[in-house]
Amino acid sequence: MKKQMNYLTFILAGIRNKPGRNLATVFCFAFIAANIFSGQYLIAGAVGSVGQGVSRMGADYIVAPVQYSVFLRGAGPDNTFAIVKALPLAWRMNNNILDKIGSVQGVLGISPQLYVSTFNSSELSPSPVEVFGIDPATDFTVQPWLQQPLTDPLGPGEVIIGYEISGDVSSKIQVFNHIYTIKGRLDPTQSAADTTIFMRMDDAYSLAATEGVVPPSSSRISPGDINAVLVRIGPGEDPDIVGTRIRRSFLPSQITVIGRHFALDPASQDIQGLPGLLNVISVIIVVAAFPLIALIAAMVANERRREIGLLKSMGAKRNVIFFFVIAESLVLAAIGGIVGVVASIITLYMLNMQGFLNSALQVSFRMPSIGAAGFMAGIALFVVIAIGSLSSLYPAYTSSRMNPYDAIRGER
Amino acid sequence: MINITGVTKTFMTGCSEVRAVDDIQLEVSPGEFILIFGRSGCGKSTLLGMLAGLIRPTSGEIRIKGVDIGSLSDDNISGLRAKEIGFVFQFSGLIPTVTVLENVLLPTLFCTGGPGSRLRALELLEKVGVADRADAYPCTLSSGEMKRVAIARALINGPSLLIADEPTGDLDVDTEYEIMELFRQLNHEGTTIVMVTHNPDLISYGTQTYRMDKGKIVERPGSSSVSNRVPGPDCILKSKDLP
């Protein structure tokens, strides 16, 4: 036996009665929702990718002991790697220069790094493994490359490993005679950071104090020693001017200020027009679909004149008839919206798995978070439901005011 | 219960005015079975439509339980229909997308606080003899079964007035007899019924019988042509009587 009669039962029964027509209507709504969701999703993914790329570009400058410039002289100006970490060089300085650099006008952030040692471990990597100390609280060059953001800050005894270092997150790793817990792993950087282990500065000092870690040819590492200071300048600041300011804060014999020689600008320019284009396409589809759906709603209302007349003869008031017509459209819109969003998610996920999105957008597509995707799905659903309700407003109004006697007799 | 005073209804057909109902005077007391007969196009259905508040009269007054329904708004008339009036159409009038039971329960959506309930719906289906088809869809029913369901639906909210517009018009004589007997039973149980038909053979069922022609009531109870007819179901030509 069926359940008690209610409005929803009646509305769903009406929808079931015309599967072909309602399937077409649902498809219309699904198409709109899929278009809106996919557009927003692609925009967010592409922008997120560029945002991540920008954050991963690392430092604008490295402030290092003056000997660095001598070492780099042969490298030339065409280096295009992101400055993720300092070079594994033994020249050091004291961290008392941090405040001075940080106070330079135009400097947004600074973070010290310390190169500790390089060692070979076939278990960890076929390449030599470098060990660096970082300050997790100020670091802005290493952690943006993490495959998964840390749930809490890097703690004592915990390390972040480069992409090519063997070991799973949460497992133990041996560095010389010290055991550390792997807290996170980086994405590939195509640089020496891929074979580097990063640890807290205090852990780095403790490790450096262990015999055999620092080669006898190098000077001893004391607490407070740092290898380099990575500098990020504020938005809108002229990098050359800020670099000059930093240089002028010190004697030329004290430090060297090394700028980066790369840019992601061409990539970001490639996708600059993408959000606008996708939004325009979404608007065109919505505008084109609106009268079509309104026409379908009007046809449905007209087709059900006798039914509406019968309902009125049973005592249905105008607002009830209005509700029936609107609700049917809303249910179809909601079903279509959900179908469209789910189909989009599956399609985009599969395309991303195959790498099509990367090649299509010419950037490294980054899937938006579940929360962001949920928000976009909400927007897509809201838009189709709004279209569904607005497009059926007039048919609902005319149906509610229909003369029941004429409606039953099929007359105007 | 019902007072119809000087009710007229005119329609415009092209440039000419058609007087479908012309100055009707009628009184219906509680418990009566009013039967109005007449040829097609004589204005019977228009009169019923006005009685149910589906059509507004051009002039005159219709009072149901003292309320002038012409003065009510559309929504108030709908409310009155939901509580006080059950309507049975010539066609089945069932909603094809829901089951028999759901059809019977439909009017309960529009009548809050009424007696309509699932139990009552099942009882009514039992009463009209189609309880075993409660879960069936209307398209699987015979014409007679559809009509029975329509009667059950008209009664679900416990109306004081049952209006029937040619309820047996599309039925064979056996089924017509069964349906008319059902109306008679309902009337004996206290339901006031106003019914129109073009079949003069049914007039014996009415406690009051009227004949309409060209929008007017031309014969009333007591007039010879009406009262001379033999009352009861025997005046219906049954199929077994056919050669």
Describe the structure.
- The complex is a heterodimer of chains A (412) and B (243).
- With 412 residues, chain A is an alpha+beta fold.
- Helices cover 49% and strands 16% of the residues of chain A.
- Chain A is built from 14 helices and eleven strands.
- Chain A has a nine-stranded mixed sheet.
- In chain A, a hairpin with a 2-residue loop joins strand 6 and strand 7.
- In chain A, helix 1 packs across helix 10 and helix 2 (19-56) runs antiparallel to helix 8 (274-303).
- The radius of gyration of chain A is 32 Å and the shape is elongated.
- The two termini of chain A are 38 Å apart.
- Mean pLDDT of chain A is 81; it is low at 71-82 and 261-271.
- Chain B is of the alpha/beta class.
- Helix content of chain B is 28%, strand content 26%.
- Chain B contains seven helices and ten strands.
- Chain B has helices at 44-51, 74-84, 100-105, 118-128, 143-155, 173-188, 224-227; strands at 2-13, 16-28, 33-38, 59-64, 67-68, 85-88, 161-165, 192-197, 208-213, 216-219.
- Chain B has a six-stranded mixed sheet, with helices on both faces.
- The radius of gyration of chain B is 18 Å and the shape is globular.
- The relative contact order of chain B is 0.19.
- Mean pLDDT of chain B is 85; it is low at 223-243.
- The chains are: A alpha+beta (412), B alpha/beta (243).
- The interface between A and B is medium-sized, with 28 and 34 residues.
The largest beta-sheet of chain A arranges its strands as 6-7-5-8-4-3-10-1-11
Portion in helices of chain B? 25-40%
Reported for the largest beta sheet of chain B, the result is: 6 strands, mixed
Query: C-alpha Rg of chain A, in Å?
Result: 32 Å
**What's the total count of β strands of chain A?**
11
Q: Secondary-structure element sequence of chain B?
A: EEEHEEHEHHHEHEEEH
Strand portion of chain A: 15-25%
Which descriptors would you attach to this protein?
heterodimer; A: 412 residues; alpha+beta; 2 domains; 9-stranded mixed beta sheet; two-stranded antiparallel sheet; 14 helices; 11 strands; 49% helix; B: 243 residues; alpha/beta; 6-stranded mixed beta sheet; 4-stranded antiparallel beta sheet; 7 helices; 26% strand; disordered C terminus
